[in-house]
Write a structure and sequence with these properties.
about 325 residues; alpha/beta; Spore Coat Polysaccharide Biosynthesis Protein SpsA, Chain A; 7 strands; binds uridine-5'-diphosphate; binds magnesium ion
Length: about 325
């Protein structure tokens, strides 16, 4: 049995990899000691460090191979091309074999020294322990943008994604299995992590700057991730047309009423010919359009929920103490 998998997605990190491995190696004894104190592991403290190479084009892949050859603790899964960070994390969850799975970045922005604290919280009974960025090294504009984004997502989403968190976290095997079973393909991991439920807690840390190299998140990729995050955690933006429909009822009724009354109130010579019929037609057609858009969004929201096929519920435990390993999804149609 493998106690812990440390999964690290890698895309062109040749500058940081040697330092990362040094830092990990010097932390291994501490991590093992912490694992030995986890009761359910019954003394096992086997670790695997799984690098998911996300189609690196620099020397990362070869570097990782040398680590794998020299130390059996390292493992390497190479993706056939660059599929993106979230896809690499998804692959990591799939291939990890540990009873707990830690995801961390490969640029040392997620300090390996924090892993033992994640394990300690896991040992207290938490199934999800995510690292919370107390501070981060970003410009004022980016910090404001991050804060605004998390505000929006926490207001709109059904299971609020915790602000100032990334993928750095520890997940219990139960949660990993459930996430792996979800049929949706486009995965926003921190959204799924919030959505699964179970006992969750956070661990605060100061996020340092990238050790070397450049961020792989260009502005375009960041925006894509933000849109992916929002659209996978909520369908509420679709209902904007519903809000507009209801707002327009008041406005359209007032305009139409005025248009009808104006025939009698406004002197005939000051009343343009055809004005009443024009205004009422525009109002009615406008209302009809908004209403049908709203109806469409109601069906699209339903379709979306059915297509991503999240289970209707997840069982945490049962008073009969029945075990629910790899719970079947209640909407499983296969
Ligand atoms: N990464 C990846 N595939 C990508 C982009 C990034 O596997 O397409 C990895 C990257 O090597 C790093 C982690 O994901 O280990 C986080 O990326 P990065 O540090 O560039 O993101 P940032 O910290 O700037 O948000
Ligand atoms: Mg980084």
């Amino acid at each position: 049995m493998i106690a812990l998998s440390i999964v690290i997605p890698i895309y062109n990190e040749q500058e940081t990899l040697p330092d990362l491995v040094d830092r990990l190696d010097s932390e291994l004894d501490n991590i093992r000691e912490e694992l030995r104190s986890v009761q359910k592991l019954q003394g096992t403290a086997t670790i695997e460090i799984l690098f998911v190479d996300d189609g690196s084009t620099d020397k990362s892949r070869q570097l990782i191979s040398t680590f794998v050859e020299t130390n059996g603790i390292y493992r390497q899964v190479n993706l056939s091309r660059n599929f993106g960070h979230q896809a690499a994390v998804a692959a990591g969850y799939k291939f990890a074999r540990g009873q707990a799975v830690v995801i961390m970045d490969g640029d040392l922005q997620d300090p390996p020294e924090l892993i033992k604290q994640l394990i300690s919280k896991w040992n207290q009974g938490f199934c999800v322990v995510y690292a919370l960025r107390r501070t981060r090294q970003a410009s004022l504009i980016m910090n404001t943008a991050y804060r605004l984004y998390y505000k929006i997502i926490s207001v709109l989403s059904d299971s609020p994604v915790q602000a100032d968190t990334g993928d750095f976290s520890l997940l219990d095997r139960t949660v990993v299995d459930i996430i792996n079973q979800l049929p949706e393909k486009e995965r926003y991991m921190r959204g799924l992590r919030a959505w699964v439920g179970f006992r969750q807690t956070s661990l605060e840390y100061d996020r340092p700057e990238r050790k070397a190299g450049k961020t792989k998140y260009s502005m375009a990729r960041l925006v894509k991730l933000a849109v992916q995050g929002l659209t996978s955690t909520t369908v509420k933006p679709l209902f904007l047309s519903g809000i507009l429909t209801f707002m327009s009822i008041v406005l359209i009724s007032a305009i139409s009423l005025y248009a009808l009354l104006a025939r009698w109130v406004v002197p005939e010579d000051r009343m343009p010919v055809g004005w009443t019929s024009l205004i009422t037609t525009i109002s009615v057609v406008g209302f009809g359009q908004l209403m049908s858009t709203w109806l469409l969004s109601v069906y699209i929201a339903r379709l979306f929920r059915e297509v991503i096929s999240r289970p209707t519920y997840i069982v945490e435990n049962d008073s009969l103490a029945l075990d629910y390993p790899n719970q079947p999804t209640t909407t499983d149609r296969t």
